């Protein structure tokens, strides 16, 4: 009775399979992660409500700060801004005037909501600077909510 040795898997073949599977997994992970890394925000519909001169000033400041990010709709008042958001024609709205406000659609894209949330302090700085230039007392300066 002779013992026939069973053949062993060669190390080179095992290493090749491991490297090949590692490459496949890496390519799959990159395929799913790549869009989130390279995605940018473009032409987000944003309403600017209020007096024409102030709305134009806000639009110009946003175009300078984030070129190509927003597609503006200029409207007359807060009610029209709310209507546009409810009809999903605009993601958000900036209301300028006596009571400046940033209106956000609660069901909108979280990335865009975060981007617009970061704009509130900049809008407050503009309101404060304009009020200070007109010698408005600090207690009377409107707050952006």
Structure at a glance:
This protein is α/β, with parallel strands linked by helices. It has helices at residues 11-38, 52-65, 78-86, 110-133; strands at 44-49, 70-75, 92-95, 101-104.
Overview of this structure, please?
The protein has 145 residues and is an alpha/beta fold. It is built from four helices and four strands, in the order H-E-H-E-H-E-E-H. It has a four-stranded mixed sheet with strand order 2-1-3-4, with helices on both faces. The mean pLDDT is 83.
Would you spell out the secondary-structure blueprint of this structure?
Layout: H1 11-38, E1 44-49, H2 52-65, E2 70-75, H3 78-86, E3 92-95, E4 101-104, H4 110-133
Parallel strand pairs: 1-2, 1-3
Antiparallel strand pairs: 3-4
Gyration radius, in Å: 28 Å
Main sheet overview: 4 strands, mixed
Q: What's the helix-strand series?
A: HEHEHEEH
Gap between N and C termini: 91 Å
| Global shape | rod-shaped
Strand order of the largest sheet: 2-1-3-4
Tell me the number of helical segments per DSSP (H or I, 4 or more residues long): 4
Mean pLDDT: 83
What proportion strand? 5-15%
Number of strands: 4
Helix and strand composition category: alpha/beta
Helix amount: 40-55%
**Low-confidence blocks of residues:** none
